[in-house]
Amino acid sequence: AVTVDVPGDLAGLRVVVSAGGTREPIDPVRFIGNRSSGRQGVAVALAAADRGAEVVLVAAHVDEGVLAEASTHPAVRVVGAGTAAELGAAVETETDAADVVVMAAAVADYRVAEVSTLKRSKEAAPQGGITLDLVENADILAGLVRQRREGQTIVGFAAETPGEGGTLLDRGRRKAARKGTDLLAVNEVGWTRGFESADNAVTVIDAAGEVVAARRGSKRDVADALWDAVLVVRQSQAN
Ligand code: CTP
Ligand code: CA
Q1: Can you tell me which residues bind CTP (predicted)?
Q2: What does pTM read for this prediction?
């Protein structure tokens, strides 16, 4: 049999993908985290790499088995990040040379105001409960949009729980407008949906709030649908 190397449809594209959940330290042994496994972000990175892109995966906390797959791919370079601040710094550095940035990471909105260098002890705490002061983290995605170079495509993810504030799509549209993303992938999450599961359901909206893709399937299927949408917006940006 003869194998022919067909260049992928993302060949020549330099891509940065952030994935996983950041962890905000409380003291040397404790942190505030979230349930992101990093699966969807890693699927986005691997789909791009398999389609010919050169990929930097900025990985916050990603499940071990999930990360292993990405770190052995020849077209993927993995950069580790722990906190939201570290993730922001790494993404900014890597974005300098990127054509597309996908923020799939679950970034902590707040960090602990005063991280204790010693393990906090109940002995030194008031009885009955304590209060942790939290301060807001910088919005990495909004910063990328503000500093966007000509020809750069900025993509966000929004995990939403249904309920208050209109439909999922309404909330997604408001978020896309607030952030100024070229594309925003909106997905519904809950305790039984989105996080640990292999499958996902995502609606992708463009800068005008129009639905440009909707896909329910494996996280890889969703990733491929997202890259298809990226190619379409880049085509229209170029014209
Ligand atoms: N994001 C970011 N920096 C932050 C918070 C979020 O870059 N400090 C990115 C996420 O990676 C994601 C997008 O912004 O791509 C949307 O995240 P989300 O948490 O849904 O939006 P928020 O603006 O934080 O709004 P809220 O949590 O109140 O819904
Ligand atoms: Ca948030």
Answers
A1: 109, 119, 157, 175, 179
A2: 0.95
Helix (H, G, I), strand (E, B) or coil at 222: helix
Q: What is the ipTM of this complex?
A: 0.99
Where in the sequence numbering do the catalytic residues fall?
Answer: 34
User: Which helix (H) or strand (E) element contains residue 199?
Assistant: strand 199-206
Residue with tokens 């807001």, as numbered in its chain:
136
Encoded tokens for 224: 């491929």
Q: What average pLDDT score do residues 115-140 get?
A: 96
Looking at the CA of 60, name the nearest ligand.
1
Under the banding of pLDDT at 50, 70 and 90, the label for residue 196 is low
Check pLDDT > 70 for residue 142.
yes
Reduced to 3 states (helix: H, G, I; strand: E, B; else coil), residue 163 is coil
pLDDT of residue 194: 61
Q: For ligand 1, atom 24, name the residue with the nearest CA.
A: 109
For the chain, the C-alpha Rg in angstroms (whole number) is: 19
- pLDDT over threshold 90, residue 70: yes
For residue 110, report the distance from its CA to the centre of ligand 2, in Å. Answer: 9
CA–CA separation, 92 vs 88, rounded Å?
6
